[in-house]
Amino acid sequence: MGSQSIRTKIALWTGLCLLLTSSVNLTLSVFSAREEAMRDAQQIATASAVENMLRIRTVLERAMFTAKGFAQSVTAAKDHDQRITFSRRHINLMLRQMILENPEFVGGATCWEPNAFDGRDAEFANTPGHDDSGRISYYWFHNDLGNVSMDILTELDSKSWYVDPLRKKHETLSEPYVYPIHGKDVFMTTVSVPIQDSHQVYGVATIDVTLDFLQQLVEDVYSYSCRSGDGFRQCHDVE
């Protein structure tokens, strides 16, 4: 998926906001066409959808920009002409700081192919921040305490957000999915950027963005359709 395709997908998702809002407005017109209070609710729903549309577009574009910047920075570690040396600790701290400074992101990761970073995976097996493979798969996310926590991502080769950018050699935007983070299911999408130079692809940098506003819009459809002019809930089945 190239940049044009990603922009198309963002446009489709933002269009979904308006589609859901149309559903809210249609539901309101069916049940409460003559109630001024419901017309006010229609205006509120439309304004909310437009706000969410602009918000998700801004956050996704910022996520792509941030992931690209991180990928370009760590790629320098593979460029011997740059004379820049990054350790695993360096890139892990860079990732942590990137997520800490961007509370609008759910989290972010840097995942590398086996031995692609420094050829020392075996030395790091089962050390802090690594599984028994020693492979780099750092993930930082915002926790419930207002800080960030680290996790290790596993089974990378079965995840489309990892495999697709490696294979296509350009950035991707995943389909929406649910992923458990810190014991809570999060509805989100993942922006992935390959870490690569002119010779090969070494891994990916990712940013996760929540899509919970879509679920909220669906709930609004139900909420507005079950509300009468006096504010009391009065649900009906659509036949």
**Integer average pLDDT:** 79
Which band does the percent of strand residues land in? 15-25%
Helices, by number, come to 5
Question: Considering DSSP H and I runs of 4 or more, what fraction of the residues is helical?
Answer: 40-55%
CATH C-level class is Alpha Beta
Instruction: Provide the gyration radius in Å.
Output: 22 Å
**Overall number of structural domains:** 1
Walk me through the structure.
This protein is an alpha+beta fold. It has helices spanning 3-32, 36-75, 88-100, 160-168, 212-225, and strands at residues 107-112, 137-142, 148-152, 172-173, 177-181, 184-196, 201-210. The longest helix has 40 residues, at 36-75. The protein is globular. It starts with a helix and ends in a 14-residue tail after the last helix.
Present the secondary structure layout:
Layout: H1 3-32, H2 36-75, H3 88-100, E1 107-112, E2 137-142, E3 148-152, H4 160-168, E4 172-173, E5 177-181, E6 184-196, E7 201-210, H5 212-225
Antiparallel strand pairs: 1-2, 1-7, 2-3, 4-6, 5-6, 6-7
Structure described in brief:
This protein is an alpha+beta fold and 239 residues long. Strands 1, 2, 3, 4, 5, 6 and 7 form a 7-stranded antiparallel beta sheet that branches.
